[in-house]
Amino acid sequence: MSRVFYACALILALGLTCAQAQTSKAETTTEKITIVLADGPLLVDEVSEESDGYWYKRGNITTFIDRARVVRIERPKPPAEESSSDKDIVEGAGKWKLSDAGKIEEFFVGKFKKPLPLSAFGQSDLHTRWGWDHRNGMDVGLHPDSAEGRALIEFLRNESIPFLAFRGAVPGVATGPHIHIGNRSPRISSRR
User: Are both 96 and 173 inside the same structural domain?
Assistant: First the structure.
């Protein structure tokens, strides 16, 4: 009788463990909606718009936020709309010149108390070999999905500074994950 009891207890424990693992996986894969506020982003489960503001839901709590506080709402793209390049490269728009780099360094040092991890500032040998005019760009050695990468991208968007965020290597374009600050680099007309 005790063997049957232990066997049943083991099966029950394994079943609960599997159910918990499935629940946790489902919770982490749910994509959040971002409400971008003047003082930073807010991740939520649902948003509905009213004439004077927005109702948003986080977990089982629903809250109202005044329209004046909201800069924009960012909804995740449906999987059918994403191509492989959309997942690997994120792009921001705006005006930029390399002499504005101090503003970005100042933000990063102020927020993270360490220097901006630059991997290229202006033209580099690699960019020349690959035929890119990178004179007005800089590359930051951060993964765009890291905490530091997300904070930097949010700063760039808020300041309307153009960027490209690479989540992985792209042959002839990127050696690995990084954030390119500046407009897309044009091709050099004559390679050496």
Answer: yes
